[in-house]
Amino acid sequence: MKEDIKKRIEEMQEAMQSPDFWNDKQRAQAMIKSLSELKVEAEGGGKYDSSNAVITIFSGAGGDDAEDFSGMLFEMYRKFIENKGWEIYILHKNENDHGGYRNITFEVDGKKSYGILKNESGVHRLVRISPFNAKNLRHTSFSMVEVVPKLEKLIDFDIPEEDMDIQFTRSGGPGGQNVNKRETAVRIVHRESGLSVHIDGERSQAQNKEKALELLRGKLFKKREEDRKKHEKGLSVSATTSIEWGSQIRSYVLHPYKMVKDHRTDVEVRDVEKVLDGEIQDFLDAEKNLE
Questions:
Q1: d(CA 143, CA 127)
Q2: Torsions phi, psi of 143, nearest 5?
Q3: What is the pLDDT, as a whole number, of residue 142?
Q4: Does the N-terminal or the C-terminal CB of the chain have fewer CB atoms within 10 Å?
Q5: Which domains does the chain have, with CATH numbers?
Q6: What are the φ/ψ torsions at residue 207 (nearest 5 degrees)?
Q7: Strand 248-253 versus strand 122-129 pairing type
Q8: pLDDT of 217-250, one tens digit each?
């Protein structure tokens, strides 16, 4: 299989050396795109393990509890990141009135942070007595964690401008009134895949656009990797993960007993507070063996 892919890559690279390659611009761009996809397929997810990670946490089923859980997960990762001596940069956040997040996106600046954290991608489940329920009932909520590599502009992984819808809006992030008066926030939608990104953490439109493009490249890379794995398993590449019961990779149970269990590796930790305080290395080590 890989030998066939390697041969196709060599043939395409040879064709691209032709002096009349750009005579048909549409065909040329299609070939460049195909070449990029083949290189990713040939080299695997390990190619970008040394990259910085960009993490997005989305709230799923569970209302206020799910948004609060997203905040708990963010704090868990923040403490893990700081304990590693890495840096964290907020790229976009949609916060509710209770200090939780409908979604939050942040970059992890640390050596091999993508390779270390990439397997945290998936649905996380929380079971506890809801602090938002006057009857003190047990409540289950879900959040989705997405981890993608930060991909700066690469010749073999670029996105043609015509493949994207780019919108500029007023930023609601830090920077004061002067920033909010200008359209510094950037939202990009990739037409073919439907993937979208929204960045407003930087002060200038140009900086936010560059961050958005880096995130979109990472999302496209992740999607292609997931599609490839589904194809190898004979699954439909159109199938998407629902942020709800039955799709979770890890459960954080605070009631009626206390335990964090990873459903892929069967690793269990009974000290839930320790895990939520950022001590997740046991899970990361076990996840590495799944690759």
A1: 12
A2: -140, 150
A3: 95
A4: N
A5: 1-43 (no CATH), 48-151+237-288 (3.30.70.1660)
A6: -65, -45
A7: parallel
A8: 999 988 888 887 776 666 665 556 667 666 899 9
